[in-house]
Amino acid sequence: MSDPELRTLVDALLEEQRTLTAVERFARAHERHEFPTQQKHYRDLIPLNAPQSGEQYAFAVNLDTCTGCKACVSACHSLNGLEDGELWREVGLLHGGTARAPFQQTITTACHHCADPACANGCPVLAYEKEAATGIVRHLDDQCIGCQYCVLKCPYDVPKYSEKLGIVRKCDMCHSRLADGEAPACVQACPNEAIRIEVVKSEAVASEGRMLPGVFESSYTRPTTTYKTSRDMPAAVRDGAEKLRLEHAHWPLIFMLVLTQAAAGAYGAASALGGVLPVTFATALLHGGLAVSILHLGRPLGAWRFFLGLRKSWMSREILAFGMFAGCGTAFAAVVWLGWKMERPLAIATLVLAAAGVACSAMIYVDTRRAAWSGRRTFLKFFGTAIVLGLHAYAMFAAMPQWLVIAVAVQWIFAGIETRYHLCALSDDDHPAHRSALITKRLLGAVEDARTIAMLLGAACAACAFITPSRWPAAVAFGFAAIAAIAERYAFFAGACAPRMPGGTAR
Predict the structure, then answer these.
(1) CATH class, range 38-238
(2) Rounded mean pLDDT of the chain?
(3) What distance in Å separates the CA atoms of residue 112 and residue 94, rounded to the nearest whole number?
(4) pLDDT of residue 41
(5) What is the pLDDT of residues 126-145, one digit of tens each?
(6) What ranges do the domains of the chain cover?
(7) Reported pTM
(8) In the predicted model, is pLDDT for residue 19 greater than 80?
(9) Element spanning 107, H or E
(10) From 3.40.50.1000, 1.20.1630.10, 1.20.920.10, 1.10.10.10, which CATH number describes the 251-494 domain?
């Protein structure tokens, strides 16, 4: 009807219907009982008003009505088209209490859309976005390079790496559905209304304590999910927490760390000794380490965007430091090859950048807050590897048996410090790294034995160096020292117990 005078009441009502929001249409249809019986469960599961300034959406879980049926898991998996074995929402179990008063509680968990998300803070290419209007932490698949640093940073085991796609993916709270006034799939699927969406004030999000017994402390990321229950919740642990399991080894990172730290030490030896052979050896180690690091990336061609995260990501800073280290180290080698008189300033700059690169490597793992990757221990391991392999390189090129003895002795000193820490953590049930120490003892015994054997063989090479006046004993000893370092770095990754939420099939 284009003529206003000919408009009827029906025309006005139809026009009004076209301007109603999805939430208003839902409310009016609900009042008229136009939905099937099962859709009564959809009411009041999302806020009618969008978050205002200083607010955001958050999951709220009523533990008293959660039965662990996993309807939320199936709905999430189906709606998002996830791969087999890929889960963005999981259901687990907490248990505890006493023999007289046992406690058991099913827990549904997904991304907590933290107020200070660790995944976003660690990403070197800014593949995470915390929406200003909703507070939802979204993963930008087209930005992701598959470095998996967010997997290490998140203390709730939320981001999931896809080998097929070469990227990480995670829950986005079905943001497109929320934008249309519809509840997320997990919320609608729950037959008992155990999950709903709330609007919370970002400043009021808990910055201390824990969401649930046994999970990571909230001060790190300030998760927004709330778990509500009318029952007293005693100290409890997630089901399967007692079972020891190895973490992902990250083999490309193992070789990258050992080779780059060996290069840092070898450049120190080259600076002290001079000569073409030592600096060539150090340069080869460095470029070999940087080359193998690419194998860890699911989408290596996007790594050039690392500079986007320099403000807050230690991985971005590591890439920058090692890039400068490689450039300066190569220039140092070129000057030595050409015989130009610029060795000293380039040698000093190379060593400074090498130390910066090793420090950034250490901070990548310290910043995850895992107990086994404490600052003092991680820095000792990483710089210890550089020192030990640097001394071995010096002994090899100087062909001086006494320096090989010093290198072996220093290696055993660092190993002794590590053993002392391990025994302290093993003997104290309350030690933060106690569980990691148990994993090392029970599951990594063969790796520790291989490391010890390599160190003993290196010591035997030191004895042979006094008998055979050549570089070969020192060269073989360097190889055994590198093998010991690789074994130690494997245990560093595989034995670092990761914090998790209840749930999942591999817990």
Answers:
(1) alpha beta
(2) 90
(3) 18
(4) 46
(5) 999 999 999 999 999 999 99
(6) 1-34, 38-238, 251-494
(7) 0.88
(8) no
(9) strand 102-109
(10) 1.20.1630.10
